[in-house]
């Protein structure tokens, strides 16, 4: 008489239960993951903008020439450069927009600007959060939240 071996593996019913539970977990966590991704996209873009403003100021002092950061007419990109030389061009991630047609110019002698400037940033699909990169007349850069809140980031 042949010996009977123990069955191993999952039955079809057990496998279907695993698929149902995984689907429910995914349905619950997907919306919060989307918000997290959008927040990170916006925060990363504004932090990069802040660093580029510092870079523009340092290049103005180094070159002893006016260096400007200029946003495009749609707010989806910006460039850094002098009147004759483009230093850097940045295209923002999908959905992130800045204030349109803004120019922040740093003086080549002191690294100062003509006055306080600010660039507001938002991301489509996340209306409860907007960030701002501000530059004082002496060239100091700060980043803050206009609406909403992010851990470790002050309100404007």
From TrEMBL:
Instruction: Kindly provide the name given to this protein in its UniProt entry.
Output: Type II secretion system protein H
Top-level taxon of the source organism: Bacteria
| InterPro entries (alphabetical) | N_methyl_site, Pilin-like, T2SS_GspH
Q: Does the keyword Flavoprotein apply?
A: no
Give the bilayer topology. Single-pass membrane protein
Q: Does the keyword Transmembrane apply?
A: yes
Subcellular localization(s) per the UniProt record: Cell inner membrane
> To which protein family does this belong?
Belongs to the GSP H family.
Transmembrane stretches, start-end: 12-31
Per UniProt, residues of the General secretion pathway GspH domain are 46-119
UniProt keyword terms in alphabetical order: Cell inner membrane, Cell membrane, Membrane, Methylation, Transmembrane, Transmembrane helix
Supply the NCBIfam families for this chain. IV_pilin_GFxxxE (TIGR02532)
């Amino acid at each position: 008489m042949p010996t009977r071996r123990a069955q191993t593996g999952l039955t079809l019913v057990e496998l279907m239960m695993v698929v149902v539970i995984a689907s429910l977990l995914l349905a619950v966590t997907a919306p919060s993951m989307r918000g997290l991704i959008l927040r990170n996209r916006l925060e990363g873009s504004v932090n990069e903008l802040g660093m580029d403003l510092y870079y523009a100021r340092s290049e103005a002092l180094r070159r002893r020439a006016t260096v400007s950061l200029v946003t495009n007419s749609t707010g989806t990109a910006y460039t850094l450069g002098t009147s004759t030389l483009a230093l850097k061009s940045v295209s923002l991630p999908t959905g992130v927009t800045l204030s349109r047609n803004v120019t922040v110019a740093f003086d080549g002698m002191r690294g100062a600007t003509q006055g306080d400037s600010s660039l507001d940033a938002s991301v489509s699909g996340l209306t409860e959060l907007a960030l701002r990169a501000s530059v004082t007349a002496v060239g100091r850069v700060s980043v803050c939240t206009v609406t909403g809140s992010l851990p470790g980031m002050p309100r404007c």
